[in-house]
């Protein structure tokens, strides 16, 4: 009777905790949907054609498209021809942001893509597989009257992928090609108020530089940055969730250290998962408001990679610890086949990220996708990572199937137990199935909300209420995985309650007063627990 009362109390506590976590999950989605603005903003920029006829001009002068010291402008290239101005003396200038606005550190990053307006002309046609060479420079200043300070200068090559929907005849001259957007620049911080981009298209017919690229009319840029309002909401969430996970981690590890045995593998993995979640949560981004930390995007990718690698490893070990025999359990080396693909895939993605964002720390105009070798290398890393991910999920699905099959077999041994202990084991099985369903629900919600955020317009409008779908996706999914880790440590922390019934369970050989935990994989210094013996007996059968 005492065991049944304790088990009923435990189930009630589980339902209460589940309800509280559900409330927090709904709040996480609502914070992004109702309070935060859209995560990012896209701003179009039209370059201004400036004239610079001095020798070695790009080393000594920055050309402003507007303002008190603006450059001498060209209306179009017909004017340049009439004035006998060469292509090498034309500079495309873009000022960031637009007039009467300022950039802010709350914007976090800037991503730019380029679109070229190329007109068809019979005597200057766009060649197949043409490449355009860009001489680009980036500068900053924090006052409208300060001198510009250079951030980066590079000569970049981009492949043109354009189509022409009309016959190439005299009647079609002047019509524009339909060209793909080109990756242009990415900066991991917005530490200054004003930025200036100068773009030159150097022409050298002898070397074949910028020959056969058609008649370029204009250069357009689209700048994408994070919204300041969303950044503040995001920082607030990270600041709130960091102590929450830290507190449950301390409580969880304290419960483990109070035991008379050493921590087992599953407990260590859950604790490591908590550490990786805390690593993501720690709001170091607050420092990016005052410091020019251009490496924050790369650092964020590394933090997420560590967490997802630990999460995938946990799922494998969690399933394995419920199905392996005594010789293979509680040893990380027993999972090398399943964990190996995770390590290889994570390493490939890390190398890819270093080749892209790592190089951009020195050259923000660099893109690994702009050369054939870079594209093949990037695709190789991504394909290997994809193969590893497929192998992982095959292993995981097979192990989940085996675990549920073993659990079904174990349930046949329950009638031989006393009522109190039968209820206890039924609770353990319920918790395992509950966690598996929660895991599937979290993964499904992540995929569903990602798809919805991609196919919708970014917000839903219900009467006077506007819901930002993309913001709700980010805050909701981020909060969901925090709650998932929180629930793991709460449910699988060792219990210190004793069941004092002096009853036997047939072949299981259970002693009275043995300590029991929520997890089914705990092994005492005096021997395996009852659930472990039950699992081992089923595995041997």
UniProtKB/TrEMBL annotation:
Molecular-function annotations in GO: Wnt-protein binding
GO cellular component, one term: Golgi membrane
Membrane topology label: Multi-pass membrane protein
Coiled-coil boundaries: none
InterPro entries: WLS-like_TM (IPR047843), WLS_GOLD (IPR053936), Wntless (IPR009551)
Compartmental location: Golgi apparatus membrane
GO BP, sorted A to Z: intracellular protein transport; Wnt protein secretion; Wnt signaling pathway
Keywords: Developmental protein, Golgi apparatus, Membrane, Transmembrane, Transmembrane helix, Wnt signaling pathway
Pfam families: WLS-like_TM (PF06664), WLS_GOLD (PF21883)
Wntless GOLD domain boundaries: 48-226
Membrane-traversing stretches: 233-253, 265-284, 296-318, 339-359, 379-407, 428-452, 472-493
Annotated ranges, domain Wntless-like transmembrane: 227-496
Principal subcellular localisation of the protein: Golgi
Stored PANTHER family: INTEGRAL MEMBRANE PROTEIN GPR177 (PTHR13449), PROTEIN WNTLESS HOMOLOG (PTHR13449:SF2)
Record family assignment: Belongs to the wntless family.
Protein name per Swiss-Prot or TrEMBL: WLS protein
Species the sequence originates in: Rissa tridactyla (Black-legged kittiwake)
Classification lineage: Eukaryota, Metazoa, Chordata, Craniata, Vertebrata
